Amino acid sequence: MTTLVHGCATHVGRVRRVNEDSALAEPPVFAVADGMGGHAAGDVASAVVVEELRALVGRPVDAAAIGRALQAADRRVRDLSDDSGRRLGAGSTVAAVALLDREGTPSWLVVACGDSRVYRVAGGRLTQLTVDHSLVQEMVDDGLLTAAEARRHPARHVLTRAVGASSRLEPDQVVLPVTPGERLVLCTDGLTNELDDGRLAELAGDGSASPQAVAEALVEAAVDAGGHDNVTAVVVDVPAAG
Ligand code: MN
Prior knowledge:
Elements: E1 5-11, E2 21-26, E3 29-36, H1 41-54, H2 63-78, E4 91-92, E5 94-102, E6 105-113, E7 117-122, E8 125-128, H3 135-141, H4 147-152, E9 172-177, E10 183-187, H5 189-192, H6 197-204, H7 211-224, E11 231-237
Antiparallel strand pairs: 1-11, 2-3, 3-4, 3-5, 5-6, 6-9, 7-8, 7-10, 10-11
This protein binds manganese (II) ion.
The site of manganese (II) ion has 6 residues, from helix 5.
């Protein structure tokens, strides 16, 4: 099994009173989740997502197991209710990667639902591996907005898919090869709304810094840049070959 090195950092930010983000960094599963919903339901929703994924740690992980965990989280988040039995209307994003090790060939399973993201950094280049499920991303895809306009658009927080909040759960899933020396960065929108890809590449591309130092530097930079939302980053390094 490939030995991964990882780091994790989160911050409530400068505006919110509650941190509704949750994170998981327990090989072979890594995830961030960004909860939403009234009556402080968001933190419970993101915690449910992480709890269902954490249950996979220590067992053989495959796409079907991840799918079942997210379906279980979807049902639990949907059913979250207050003391009088009223549904809270909570939801959560999820961006997760799991190291699969089929017949000795490692690969990444990348899963995402909502606007939390997974990036890959390799050879000094930053690549976004996930596509946001958001209204502004659809407008960008349709040529109605530029990526820069999307970052400032008033509806930029409106999601088109989320765990527990869509008519049915539709996470994106992709399997990618594991490459020695690469780094994956999982983050919530509180990070990407404050730091553009250039700044992200600069901070995440520092190969001399440990994954923990990079996770902390990313979160600190987002808080310094405004911290308008909760900020969470998980960083996973695949050791270089040899
Ligand atoms: Mn957020």
